[in-house]
C-alpha cells in the first residue's frame, strides 16, 4: 500500500516555501541538507505501527520497519512516495541515509538508537528535511 502524507494547506505552502528556499540558496550549501522547522501547532505523531525501536537495516521486516518508514514519510520532503510496507528495502536504506545527513548524524542507512531518537524528535516537533 502506498501512502501519501496528508497535509493541510498551510503545511503544503510551508513545504513549497522550504523547497524554493532550498533551491534559492542551494549553491551556498553545496549538497548539504538542513532541517526546517514546521509551523507551530503542526506537530502530532501520526505514526502508530510500533513502540519498539530495534536496530534496523536492509532486509529487516515488521512493524518497527513500518514505524521507521512512516517517520521518513513525515520528515523527508521528496519527489516520490515512501511506501510503508514493513520491508526495509534499498529505497528505505537510501531514505534513512538522507534523513541522517539532514539531521547531522553519520549516514550509514541503519536505524540505530540515535537515528530513532532523531526521527521521533523531528516527527514530534514537525521538523522536515
From TrEMBL:
Record has Thylakoid as a keyword: no
Source species, domain of life: Bacteria
Keyword line: Signal
Keyword Metal-binding tagged: no
Domain Peptidoglycan binding-like: 61-119
Entry-linked InterPro entries: Peptidoglycan-bd-like, PGBD-like_sf, PGBDSf
Residues spanning the signal sequence: 1-35
Protein name stated in the entry: Peptidoglycan binding-like domain-containing protein
Organism expressing this protein natively: Streptomyces daqingensis
